[in-house]
Design a protein that fits this description.
The chain is an all-alpha fold and about 70 residues long. Helices cover about 75% and strands about 0% of the residues. It is built from three helices and no strands. The chain is globular and about 40 Å long.
């Protein structure tokens, strides 16, 4: 599953999609919480954007290790 697809599921507050790898599961859950926090006004748009970039960066690193 692509990062964009994972983001879309998380943004819709969907149930954890089936057959995701462990790094994909973690990214999905982290993004779902991030989007909820933003929607609830707990974090600003700037903070959310920074955190999202960090989450994606860490996902890409973890995904490389997972595939190896």
């Amino acid at each position: 599953m692509t990062i964009k697809e994972i983001e879309d599921f998380a943004l819709k507050d969907s149930e954890l999609p089936a057959k995701l790898t462990q790094p994909e599961q973690l990214l999905f859950l982290q993004l779902r919480v991030l989007y909820r926090d933003y929607s609830a006004g707990k974090i600003t748009k700037d903070q959310g954007s920074r955190e999202k970039q960090r989450l994606i960066s860490e996902y890409e690193f973890a995904n490389l290790h997972y595939k190896a």
